[in-house]
Write a structure and sequence with these properties.
The protein has about 70 residues and is α+β, with helices and mostly antiparallel strands. Helices cover about 40% and strands about 15% of the residues. The protein has a domain at about 1-40. The protein has helices spanning about 10-15, 20-30, 45-55, and strands at about 5, 35-40, 40-45. The N and C termini lie far apart (about 40 Å). This is Putative DNA-binding transcriptional regulator AlpA. It comes from Nocardiopsis mwathae.
């Protein structure tokens, strides 16, 4: 069975954040880098986003302490 590829919009929706927030997280290294690109469009495996959601710091958690 082939894994599902998600666009940035789909990844943001799955993570429950706005697209602008998703892009900010990715650029700051707080969300996974794209698994690939189709032309200039980045995509993520659904499993990559699921794993990030399971392991991400809670809302309001400070990320500058580690």
């Amino acid at each position: 069975m082939e894994q599902e590829k998600l666009t940035a919009e789909q990844a943001a929706a799955k993570a429950g954040v706005k697209l602008k927030t998703w892009h900010a997280y990715v650029s700051r290294g707080q969300a996974p880098q794209p698994d690939g690109r189709m032309g200039r469009t980045p995509w993520w495996w659904a499993s990559t986003v699921d794993e990030w959601i399971e392991n991400r710091a809670g809302q309001g958690a400070r990320t500058d302490l580690s």
